[in-house]
Design goal:
By secondary structure, this protein is mainly α. It folds into two domains: about 45 residues; about 210 residues, MetI-like (MetI-like fold), CATH 1.10.3720.10. Helices cover about 75% and strands about 0% of the residues. It is built from 15 helices and no strands. The mean pLDDT is about 80. It is a multi-pass membrane protein. One of its GO terms (cellular component) is plasma membrane. Belongs to the binding-protein-dependent transport system permease family.
Length: about 290
Amino acid sequence: MSNADATQSVTERLTDRDTLYRIGLYAVMYGLAVVFFVPYWRMFQLSVTPIAVLSQGGFNWIPPEITFAVWQRYLIEEPIIYQWAFNTLTIASITTAIVLLVDSMIAFSITRLEWPGRGLILGIIMASFMIPGYVNIIPLYTLINDLGLMNSYWAIILPFAAGPLGVFLLVQFFRDIPEELEEAARLDGFSSLRIYARIILPLSTPILTALGLFVFIWSWNQFLWPLIVLNDDALYTLPVGVVTLRDVNALAPNVIMTSLALASLPLFIVFLLFQDKLISSVQMQAGTG
């Protein structure tokens, strides 16, 4: 093949509409990835920059001096952040498990069981989307205080044991499961509870995984409600604890950025471990919606 033919072939491929679309798509995606990466890099860069360098001002993509003294301080010398991480992990895990159980049972009863008023109940659940969360703060605070649950894990977990978003997603997913499977199971003598546990839940693993990740991340990032109901430093969650560190170290940006990095690192690891299931579940839900 001559050079002219090779050049013409390359030119035709570059001018192909699909190729240009793919190049533009990748350019936009990588550009957005860089835009989202810059704040995280800036956070890490400030966390390893000595305070003497920061006090000089200026902007550096790579600090002229690097120190991990602040990281060593919070990871080894002052392990209070481990307690906050344990509190956050415990609360997020229990909340996620309860939400998945309660929401899936509600969705199963609405889509698979015959009882009067189930359409009305679903409508009320959907209507609750229109109620701002801040409206419930005072009633929830009064209820938790009357139950004697203040300053405990359950004060954070119980108010969010079920949510309309999870019920809505699971109802849509359960409706797409063929009813023939349930009919065959009932012919084999399966009870409703056994159908729920042995058929519906295993088939719903993708949407349950996605919902679990969403709930876990949301619970991990809670700030306002834990700040209201927790008074003991040892019971603080990571978002609340990081704010207290920021107030104490307002003139030390490297300390603030280190605490923020430590608070966001666990969620980053969780996403890396479950990103395939999260993406596949979102795609499946989009295809069945």
